Amino acid sequence: MITIVPAIDIINKQLVRLSQGQFTEKVSYGISPLEMAKTIEDNGIKHLHLVDLDGAKQGEIQNLDILKQITQNTQLQVDFGGGINSVSTVKQVLQAGAKAVNIGSVAIKDNALFVSILKEFNSDAVILSADVKDTTLMINGWQTNTGIDIFAFMEQQIVNGLTKTAVTAIHADGMLAGPDFKLYEQLRKQFPKLYIVASGGVSDISDVDKLNDMGIDAVIIGKALYENRISFQQLNKFNAPC
Q1: Pair type for strands 144-149 and 136-139
Q2: Is 137 in a helix, a strand, or coil?
Q3: Residues 10, 33: contact at Cβ < 8 Å?
Q4: How far is CA 128 from the centre of its chain?
Q5: Which tens digits make up the pLDDT trace of 149-205?
C-alpha cells in the first residue's frame, strides 16, 4: 500500500506552494505550518514532507524552529529538506525530531559528502531528492542542468548504500496535470528494491491509485490537497497503522 506524504513548503515562516519550483509563482494558504501539520495528523495521516524553501535558496537551513514545533507538537514522521549541506546539519535535523533528511543538490555537487552521510547514518534516514527534467538531473532550485542521467546516477548511489529516493518530475510539479507515470514506471522496473517516492503533478485520487497500482512506495501530495482536488476522506483507504 502506498504511503501518503502531504507536503508543507515554507517561505518566510508561511505555508506556500510553488509551480514548477518558481519562487515568482508562489501561493500562500493563510495557515501556519504547525496548524496544517496538526490537521494532517488529525485526519489519520502519519507522514509529512517538510521543505525549507528559504534554506534551499540560501544553501543553509533557515526554518529548523518550525521543524521543532511540528515534531514537538505532533507524532508525525517528518522528512525534512532544504539547506542541508554537511554531516553536522544532518545531525541537527535528526536531533530536531525529523525521521529522515532529503538531500538534493549537495548529492551531486559534492558526492563524496553525500556518500559519507550515507555511511554515517541509518539508510532509512537519508533520502536522495532527485529533481529531473525529462531524465536529466537538475540542481540549484531546478535552475542548473547537470547533464547527468538519473538512471546512471541512481545506480551509482545504490552501490554507495542508497535505499530511498524522492523523484520530482519538474515539468509536472505544482501543475495539477498528473504525475510523470512513464518516469516512475521506468524507475520501478530498473530499481525493484529501491524505495521510491513520487513527487509532483498529483491532481486527483486516481493519480494516487495509479501510482499505488504501479508499486510506487510513497507519494508526496501538495497543491491537490490544499486546493481540494483530493480530500482527506479519499486518502483514508491508504492510512494503515505504522
Answers
A1: antiparallel
A2: strand
A3: yes
A4: 9
A5: 999 999 999 999 999 999 998 876 555 668 999 999 999 999 999 999 999 889 999
Domains and CATH numbers, the chain: 3-234 (3.20.20.70)
| E strand spans, 37-172 | 47-52, 77-81, 100-103, 126-133, 136-139, 144-149, 164-169
Please give the grid coordinates belonging to residue 82: 532544504
Q: 8-22: per-residue pLDDT in tens?
A: 999 888 887 654 455
Phi/psi for 101 (5° steps) reads -115, 145
pTM of the model: 0.92
- The rounded distance, in Å, linking the Cα atoms of 117 and 43 is 34
Tell me the backbone φ, ψ of residue 215, rounded to 5 degrees: 90, 15
Q: Write out the catalytic residue numbers.
A: 9, 131
Query: 55-80, pLDDT tens digit by residue?
Result: 888 889 999 999 999 999 999 999 99
DSSP-assigned letter for residue 30: S
Distance (Å, rounded) from C-alpha 190 to C-alpha 30? Answer: 41
Instruction: Give the count of beta carbons closer than 10 Å to the beta carbon of residue 225.
Output: 23
CB-based contact 85:107 (threshold 8 Å): no
